[in-house]
Amino acid sequence: MRFYQATSFLFPRNFHLRLFTVCFGAVHLPLIAFCLTELVGGQWDWRVFVPLLVATVVGSAAAIGALWALLAPVTQATDLLGALQRGERIPGVPEGGADLIGELLRGVSGAAAETSARIQRLSDAAEKDVLTGLRNRRGFLDAVAPLLQRERTSVMAMLDLDHFKGINDRFGHDVGDRVLRAFAQRLEAGVRRSDLSARWGGEEFAVLLPNTALDEARELIERIRTSLRHDPIEIGADYPVTFSCGLAVARDYPTLAQAMRKADEALYEAKRAGRNRTTV
User: Fold this and answer.
1) 157, 206 Cβ separation under 8 angstroms
2) CA 224 – CA 226 distance, rounded (Å)
3) What is the pLDDT, as a whole number, of residue 124?
């Protein structure tokens, strides 16, 4: 560390050039010693000087090239660490040997894996609902934009479990949480892989059905609702779990807020009409 700090005046912003300068000076020491000896002795032997000069120049070029190649893993490791500090995902880290460079690369690889896992955990915590595993409101809004393309009809569905407060009051919040998890699983199993579902809040859920006609969306939601009747979520005798749903067309991302508002209005219309139904 002392020598590193003592030589900091040589190219303080470029470690490569500092190392090359030290290497260049060390390689030229024999030539410098020969020149001083010849000057002190008052004679000059060109037959010795020329081969020595050529050997020194060739050796310097070879040494600098070799050092440049040996420093390449250090440069790559530095770039990867910089990417980690910026929060970027990095590609695979090359493997090194059982030497100092290998230890450095393994350290970068470990830091990359830990950082990537931490970023994924933070992303999940920010965009996923802890109870159900579905996206939360933020995660839904972040993921929905690419799915809404112009000139293609999509449908926004807002779903709400019927009489959910009564479930909590009668059976307790643990049972209520179990119902929410079970319904989220039914919802995920019932929609298509291209659809986007989320827990919007409380017992309310949101689903975007991209590139879907309104009648097709209603048929899909009705299949989910019918499946709950034939295969109910068990919580207690004579207490079926049902949901109401409102549907509205979403043309593109700028109209999403309006579509969600209309779907919410349709949902409350379904509630007023007696629940356990889908309203457009």
Assistant:
1) yes
2) 5
3) 63
pTM recorded for the entire structure: 0.61
Domains of the chain by range and CATH? 2-121 (no CATH), 137-279 (3.30.70.270)
What pLDDT sits at residue 164? 93
Q: Strand runs (DSSP E) across 62-183, as ranges?
A: 154-161
Rounded Cα distance between 81 and 88, Å, is 10
For residue range 101-114, what is the model confidence (pLDDT) as tens digits? Answer: 777 777 777 777 77
Catalytic (active site) residue 188: no
d(CA 250, CA 257): 9
Q: Which residues contact 108 (CB under 8 A, 6 or more apart)?
A: 77, 80, 81, 84, 93
Six-digit token string for 162? 């019927």
Containing 76, the helix (H) or strand (E) segment is: helix 46-85
Given the residues 38, 114, 188, 203, select the one marked as catalytic.
Answer: 203
- 156 vs 167: CA distance, rounded Å: 27
C-alpha–C-alpha distance, residues 209 and 196, integer Å: 7
Distance CA 271, CA 9 (A): 77
Among 119, 97, 190, 15, residue whose Cα is nearest residue 4: 15
What element of type H or E holds 248? strand 243-250
Least confident span in 46-50, 101-105, 200-204: 101-105
Report in angstroms the alpha-carbon separations of 261 from 53, 137, 177, 227, 250.
Answer: 84, 15, 27, 27, 11
279: pLDDT confidence band, cut at 50, 70 and 90? Answer: very high
Find the length of the chain: 280
